[in-house]
Amino acid sequence: MHSRLEHSTAKRELPVSQQPEVDYVRVRFAGDSGDGIQMTGTRLAESAARFGNDIATFPDFPADIRAPSGTIYGVSAYSLNIGHTEVSTFGDETDALVALNPAALRKYLEGVKQNGLLIIDTDAFTERAITKAGFSSNPLEDASLSSFRMLPLEITSNTEKALKETGLSSKDARRCKNMWTLGLVLWLFERSTADVELWIDQKFHKKPDLAKANIMALQAGHLYGEVADLPPDVSRYRIQPAPLMEGEYRSINGNEGMAYGLYAGATLADLELFYGSYPITPASPLLHTIAKLKELGAISFQAEDEIAAICAAIGASYAGHLGVTGSSGPGIALKTEAIGLAIMTELPLVIVNVQRGGPSTGLPTKTEQSDLFQAIWGRNGDAPLPVIAPAHPAECFDIGIEAAKLATKHMTPLMVLSDGYIANASAPWKLPDFGDPAYAPFPVKKAKDPVNFLPYDHDPDTMARPWAVPGTAELMHRIGGLEKQAGSGNISYDGENHQLMTQIRAQKLEAIAKSIPPQQVESGQTTGKLAVLGWGSSWGPIRVAARRAELEGKSVSHIHLRHLWPLPPNLQKLLSGFDRVIIPEMNNGQLATVLRSQMGIEVESISCVKGRPFLVREIAKIIEDALGATS
Amino acid sequence: MTDLKPKDFASSLDVRWCPGCGDYAVLKSLHKILAESGARLEDTLCVSGIGCSSRLPYYMATYGFHTIHGRAPAIASGAKLANPELDVWVFTGDGDGLSIGGNHLLHALRRNLDMQIVLLNNQIYGLTKGQYSPTSQKGMRTPSSPGGTVEMPLNPARFAIGAGSKFIARSIDTQAKVLGPILEAARAFDGTAFVEVLQNCVIFNDGVFDHLKDKKQGPDHTILVEHSKPMVFGVNRNKGLRVKPGGFGLEIVSLEESSLTEADLLVHDETNHALAVALAELGENEGEPTVLGILFREQATEFGKASRIGLPEKPLSMDEKLSRLSAALRAGETWGVGEDAA
Description:
The complex is a heterodimer.
Chain A: E1 24-32, H1 37-51, E2 54-60, E3 75-83, E4 94-99, H2 102-108, E5 112-121, H3 127-132, E6 149-153, H4 155-162, H5 170-174, H6 177-188, H7 194-203, H8 208-227, E7 247-253, H9 254-268, E8 273-277, H10 284-291, E9 299-302, H11 306-318, E10 322-327, H12 329-345, E11 349-355, H13 372-377, E12 387-388, H14 396-410, E13 413-419, H15 420-424, E14 426-430, E15 478-480, H16 495-515, E16 521-523, E17 528-535, H17 539-551, E18 556-561, E19 563-565, H18 571-575, E20 578-585, H19 590-599, E21 604-607, H20 616-627
Parallel strand pairs in A: 1-4, 4-5, 5-6, 8-9, 8-10, 10-11, 11-13, 12-13, 17-18, 17-20, 20-21
Antiparallel strand pairs in A: 1-3, 2-3, 7-14, 12-19, 16-18
Helix pairs in contact in A: 1-6, 4-8, 6-8, 7-8, 9-10, 9-14, 11-12, 17-20
Chain B: H1 23-36, E1 44-48, E2 63-66, H2 72-82, E3 87-93, H3 94-100, H4 102-111, E4 115-121, H5 156-163, E5 167-172, H6 176-188, E6 192-198, H7 210-213, H8 218-221, E7 222-225, E8 232-233, E9 239-243, E10 250-254, H9 273-281, E11 290-297, H10 303-308, H11 318-329, E12 335-337
Helix pairs in contact in B: 1-6, 3-4, 5-9
């Protein structure tokens, strides 16, 4: 297999590459839960993004808050992929693993590529720690690591040494070892420590002693790289900035992007945002982020349970705000009855499901996309609900806005299917310019005029009913969960009326189907031998694998669904242009089942429910198996 | 000022409770006090859950939301938080409010958001045809308890006290002279006002409160408490409550068979929490009067006002919001990519 760099003419498209350590480097930090791994990884990611690289990250931390130290299950890791070319995923393999203890090495050694670099804190390799990690002998002394490039360093003692003058206790000094490590890794990438120093100053501005110590440790690690005699097979990485679109950038994770997007969506709809929520992994950061927007007018409400959270949001929508609730699968299950009420009362409502492994409590900190059936079909009665999904963290902001737009335009609850990977992963994000036509306001017109007012009168284009909020004179009316008489909205048990109302609720989705953009291909041709179809966070690995295969001359296209329900009307026609359609999903074939049932076409399903996104090589193999190895 | 009459608060729908149902009387009292207190139709919101009592919003000419089983306090909370100008009423029952919706009622009461929660307690599930409820008396035979219930009944007022409620009142459905002023006081209270109404289910639990309502016997079985007034009751106002001498708790005394006078009786203090607990429990044992009136009322921080601290004083315009959002998005690290930067 040969590789070459694609020179894309479209500015939006970054080239893809197959040359690790030349065009992109995949680094993984791993250590104890208390070692500051997440912070170290985030800092490197921010620094690389700021430098202009494309990045993709994957924080992987235990569900336990403070697992016993030195154990395998207490290992916290942060993986990131830093590229001059498009990265899109955190990477299948690790080019460089930083292991701050034996358990970290043991847990993540398997992911390191042949001849990959191991940066190891030898101070942590005590006999006790080695045994606790499950090694039968010291891996640094036996031959078990001979197929890797080794950089064994006394990180802890070096940190202590560097901070000797500060007067910090040796315990406090040791805690700075993550900064020493980060300094060394920055050196390895030929990057300065300036960005991180600035951040440390801000972070510890109330504790100048700690700020100083962290900066000293950071600089000491950097200097170590500069002056120490490193093994000859350890070379530095030179990853140039990626040719990103011009503009102002920051890095963002999916939960933050979604929270800001929902606020922006409510604002562009000329509404106040009301967020009702109950703490749940991995959706809680939505609540935390929106709570911080209080001075911007966002109301957040931590309810007594998942049911109250959605009910309060429905109450707020009834009273004229944009009600939003967020949760994960088990919480969504509890909200189900109330979602039905929002469908019956035709109130705008956004429900964000940050999916995690299921069923039941499942795998709270691991990602999955197995709530598609729940989203589309999981209610009593014929209860249609639009469902949309972001592909990656940087798309969440726009998804939040689209959710607000569809919910208010069509007067309907709507579900957004994010997932644990998107929620926690971060990527560079081009900051929005609200002067851009893409962010044109869509102000909601509430009912005011009592002449011919009927609460269940429907607009023939959008199938929206009038939104008459309490406090409006002469529009008093009663709504509820009992079937409504078309027009008057009074209770009706009449069979003919129920048939009509069932159709009206279905027509609401038909109206949405007409208003969404036609489905396009993400990469590749619009017809061909093979389409790899995905949704949600499988976007990254499919994109990378499909584009690489296409460069090798294979007839493969990537189709990515943002609108899952209703499906884009042209989807069936588009898919019929391919000999084979393969759907890799982080579930047991749910989208495949949906498409078979809706389109009567044969699609092939590939399932991966291992608590992590697909690897690029897994998708590449799917493509290869489907098309044969010839290019 | 408003010219609205009680009948103006009635919607055009036919009321479809069973003939003789206690809910009619409650609805009538509500129409009356709303008219008398100058309520406006458009600013009044009635929210309910599921059950016979929860049909009430349909019979109001105000805004109304007939929601799902047990969830009315949560939906009402969202509406009130979104629009603090609304006068929000929640109508619920013993099954809706204390069984399936117990959690929401608990938290609504503890938060103290300005709204009224009226719980119509008929000690039975009516709409599902007569199963025992969390307030049904022990031993009650119903289709779901053919051998008699073995569960301890829940006392709604005691539950409210436990939840930290700041306004707790109790009335009988048909006693408009007691219920009316309670509903008015509940509406005026700046916080969550909890009103238990002992309500007769004419079909499945008929007469369960007859001994309390009876013109002759009733005064011996109930005591109507009023703030700063001595606690006297009885057909001839010949009985009273006092603190058990040398003990802890309330004692029923006779003013006829002893030398005691009204001056020796306990004076109701609606701000006294310990007294409220004792009053709520009274009537659970044979021979004790059931307490009616406002058992407890104490001003405390209202949740809506407290939770709005930190919001902009005036609603922001769309432009202001977008510019503040732009600033918030740029509060951390940002960087430019351009001809120079690349």
